[in-house]
Design brief:
homodimer; about 110 residues; alpha+beta; five-stranded mixed beta sheet; 4 helices
């Protein structure tokens, strides 16, 4: 079990903003997943990985792939009050789900640094 | 309603690691809060703020203050597999709770940049 959050790296968000958006994606995706998957993930300590996508189009494509695979996923758009324009896609949360299922979609992405 | 995550800035965590720890704190604190506060916070769009503390002692003090005020709060220690030593306190999540209650504890802290 794991959860993956894929970030729109083109935005080059500052650390605090990035962290808040990733947390938002993590919680939203968790809340949209099935109770048995939620429970299984909590029991193993909520492992999560933050990966990088090149731009908004890539994030959107990953979201659509996750939806097509029936994985819990939530696209996060910023409210636009501070750093970026309203409606900008900042990241997508996928899972918690089985690692093998998530890896089919995000397996080629790199860790954010 | 809001949630605050206070980060141990002394660790100078890389962006991906920081984001994952903040997400962990956000979700853990959410799950430990009362259902009526969870619901009220979800209804206003889960507002959250990421703040900075100077070191582990300050993060621990904030956690104790939150516990003393009966606010939902969760101290996050790293598993130590990657960037920092096992057991290192990386951050604390507080709330969701009423803003006035959280501000009594974290009102003097600065946004992380």
């Amino acid at each position: 079990m794991k959860q993956v959050i894929v970030v729109n790296a083109a935005l080059k968000l500052p650390r605090g903003k990035l962290s808040a958006q990733v947390a938002h994606a993590s919680l939203a995706s968790f809340l949209s997943s099935q109770p048995n998957l939620q429970q299984a993930w909590l029991e193993v300590g909520m492992p999560k990985v933050v990966l990088s996508a090149s731009n908004e189009e890539e994030v959107l494509g990953i979201y659509k792939s996750a939806q097509g695979a029936n994985l819990a996923s939530q696209l996060i758009k910023d409210a636009g009050k501070t750093v970026v324009s309203a409606g900008t896609i900042t990241c997508v949360g996928i899972g918690p789900a089985q690692e093998v299922d998530i890896n089919k979609i995000t397996g080629s992405l790199k860790l954010i640094v």
